[in-house]
Specification:
6 helices
Length: 170
């Protein structure tokens, strides 16, 4: 039989673990649970549905204000959808150390942390037919749609042979 002290300790450990998992999700690294359907329907129709926590609020503000010229494409949306998505992106934008800096042109792939994590990936990999660009996170990161970019969950697309994967670990 467990003593009250042991039971209290187990409850405290369980609550602590739950708090840590919530903190990770709330820390911006995972996709928030309250993602609007319009985010998948509109944004993920053309590219990876990026986790809002990967960019700071000011970057998301500029991206949403310039949808008519969204990286060379007209991605305009109706005002209600822009407002809904902007509010959600702002509320879930990154605030932790690695995303405080606004990347050049608000491009996730030009952020310091992205470049550090991918510094060993040859330029030819980004141009491969099954990847096409560094912005196609889902080509290699099997959990990208959930905001899971763990190095252990990387899958190289067919035709991409990088030999040893030592450079993914840092």
């Amino acid at each position: 039989m467990k003593t009250p002290t042991t039971r209290s300790l187990l409850v405290a450990i369980g609550l602590g673990m739950a708090a840590l998992s919530t903190a990770q999700a709330d820390g911006g690294r995972m996709m928030p649970r309250d993602m609007p359907k319009a985010y998948m329907a509109e944004c993920a129709a053309c590219h990876t549905a990026y986790t809002p926590g990967l960019l700071p609020a000011r970057s998301w503000q500029r991206i949403m204000a310039g949808l008519d010229k969204h990286y060379g494409t007209d991605a305009s949306l109706d005002d209600a959808t822009v407002k809904q998505l902007s509010t959600w992106l702002q509320a879930n934008a990154g605030t932790y150390k690695r995303v405080v800096e606004e990347p050049p042109e608000d491009r996730l792939t030009r952020s310091a942390w992205f470049e550090r994590k991918h510094r060993e990936v040859p330029a030819s990999v980004w141009k491969h037919a099954s990847i096409k660009s560094a912005a196609n996170c889902a080509a290699c990161h099997t959990g990208a749609d959930r905001g899971d970019f763990d190095d252990d969950n990387i899958r190289m697309p067919a035709g991409v042979n990088l030999g040893q994967r030592w450079f993914w670990k840092d």
